[in-house]
Each structure stands twice: as structure tokens, then as C-alpha cells.
Specification:
single chain, 301 residues, alpha/beta, Arginase, Chain A, 8-stranded parallel sheet, 11 helices, 8 strands
Length: 301
């Protein structure tokens, strides 16, 4: 398969700096070589977004900080993703903060619109990212990006790349959630997303949750996987912007990627929030490489 690695050194969506260096850390961890070793042909795109320092930009709207540069960057990403997916190739987006999902989903949705396919989203994240400008406690767009993709929030975000909803919230499935704001929790319930929290995993067992996730996606034609490294316990992924104890283990995350790959429906993905400033010997970026490989077909035997 042709895999296009799209580097998005965007950290305007978050409060803590450093995730803009995530793509280079994943590159240094050997993403290209790893994917080629399992039979893929890779194409690297480093020119989609040229970052200017966040300190030199004005935040603007306090409830949607750095809205303009984020919209500009994500429109460019969406265009690239649409071109890649229209040709039947696989875009693998490396963030950056999670606001890049706005562009990834907009591009995939544009292709799906032309082909009449239904999109599902596997959102592996400690957080919901389902706030809007009215519920956000921080004003950081990485906490509003999925709600916007589902049609909720500011028009500049909901209508990014093309007008209207990019994914039906009833086709969104969360895994690993453990830190949801009150406002976004209410919106998530009203929108009808499916959520498997860490408590659900503890109660039901990880194998049961994985099987339920695979069953959930039987109703869609294509799947976008959005993987935030903060879903992992900091013991396994210390290099991320908002580390929270009690997350997934590395083995659980790798298995989830391997299992979702067996559906044959995964057509695009992103791995975000690798922050090498906070990492230890680049172990978070190395794990990101292995997660991508499992998602793209690698098995242990």
C-alpha cells in the first residue's frame, strides 16, 4: 500500500508547547523505515504546514485561541488528505496537537462524499475534545476539534474545508477516556457518541471492549483512527502534553491497533500529542511508530 506520511508540526491548539516537534521525533524513531519493512511504499510530506512561533501570533478569540492559523493549517491538510484518499492511498498524519483532526476528517469526508461512503471514527484519547466555544474551560481548540467535526461549535471550524458536518457523532467511538469536562460530557451524551472509558475497560475487560468496538464499526464503510498518545498511561508514554495516570498500557494500545486493522476498513489515521520535551529517550515516539505499524498490518507472528 502507498502510505503518505504527513507531518503537521502544529501546536496552536494546546497550552503546552512542544508537540510541534512531535513529527520530527516520530521521524527520528524510524516511522518511514518501519512501514517500509512491512511492505508499504512511503511518501513523506513535510511542506503542508510551516509553523510560525505561537509567541508571535495573537490568540484572538479567548474561547477559540489561534483560530485563524489553525483553520489555515487544517484547510491545507484537508486538501492533501482528500487528494491522497481519492487516489486510494493511505494518509498517516503526524501531529502536532489534536486540532489536526479537523483537517484529516475534512479531507476524508470530502472523498467519502464523492463516493457515498459512511465514515466512522475511532477516537483513542484520554479526553473528549468535544467542547465548543460555549463550554470550553480553556479556549484551546484541541479540546473542541472533534465536536466541530461533528457539526458543533464555531462556523469557522464546523465549516472548515467545506460546509457542514464531517462525521455523524453516532459513528464516533471513544476508547480510553478518563478526563471529560462537564460541558463536553453533556454534549457527548446528547450527540449520541459511544464511549468506552477506562472504567468500562476495568469492568468489562479489554478483550470484551475491543470486540464491541469492532462490532460498532460494522455499520460504517471506512474508519478514521485518531490516536492521542495521552490515552496511554504515562509509565509507557511520558512524552505527551497532558499526562494522566490510569491509562492504557502499551500492550493494550498495540492490540487495539492490530485488531481494528483486521476490519479492513481503516483508510486514514493520525497520531498526535507526542511532546519530545517531556519524553524519556524518545520512548513515546518509538511507541507511536509501533502503533502505526500495527495499524497498518504488522503482526508479531
Amino acid at each position: 500500500m502507498n502510505v503518505h506520511i504527513l507531518e503537521m508540526p502544529l501546536d496552536f491548539g494546546a497550552s503546552r508547547h512542544g508537540s510541534d516537534m512531535g513529527p520530527s521525533a516520530i521521524r527520528l524513531a524510524g516511522i518511514k523505515e518501519k512501514l517500509e519493512s512491512i511492505g508499504h511504499t512511503t511518501y513523506v510530506h513535510t511542506d503542508i504546514f510551516k509553523a510560525t512561533a505561537q509567541e508571535y501570533e495573537k490568540p484572538g478569540n479567548p474561547n477559540a485561541k489561534y483560530l485563524k492559523p489553525i483553520v489555515r493549517a487544517c484547510n491545507k491538510l484537508a486538501s492533501s488528505v482528500e487528494i491522497i484518499t481519492s487516489e486510494g492511498d493511505f494518509p498517516l498524519v503526524l501531529g502536532g496537537d489534536h486540532s489536526v483532526v479537523l483537517g484529516s476528517l475534512a479531507g476524508l469526508a470530502a472523498t467519502a462524499k464523492k463516493t457515498g461512503q459512511k465514515i466512522g471514527v475511532l477516537y483513542v484519547d484520554a479526553h473528549g475534545d468535544f467542547n465548543t466555544n460555549e463550554t470550553t474551560p480553556t479556549g484551546n481548540i484541541h479540546g473542541e476539534c472533534l465536536a466541530a467535526s461533528a457539526g458543533l461549535g464555531l462556523p469557522e471550524l464546523t465549516n472548515l474545508y467545506f460546509d457542514g458536518q464531517k462525521v455523524d457523532p453516532k459513528n464516533i467511538c471513544f476508547v480510553g477516556s478518563r478526563d471529560l469536562d462537564p460541558g463536553e460530557k453533556k454534549l457527548m451524551k446528547e450527540a449520541g457518541v459511544t464511549v468506552f472509558t477506562m472504567s468500562d475497560i476495568d469492568r468489562q475487560g479489554f478483550d470484551t471492549v475491543v470486540e464491541k468496538v469492532k462490532t460498532f464499526f460494522k455499520k460504517v464503510d471506512i474508519i478514521h483512527v485518531s490516536f492521542d498518545m495521552d490515552c496511554l498511561d504515562p509509565m509507557f508514554a511520558p512524552g505527551t502534553g497532558i499526562p494522566l495516570p490510569g491509562g492504557l498500557t502499551n500492550r493494550e494500545a498495540l492490540l487495539l491497533m492490530e485488531e481494528i486493522a483486521t476490519t479492513g476498513k481503516v483508510k486514514s489515521a493520525e497520531i498526535v500529542e507526542v511532546n519530545p520535551i517531556l519524553d524519556v529517550r524518545n520512548q513515546t515516539a518509538i511507541l507511536a511508530v509501533n502503533l502505526a505499524a500495527r495499524l497498518l498490518g504488522e503482526t508479531l507472528y
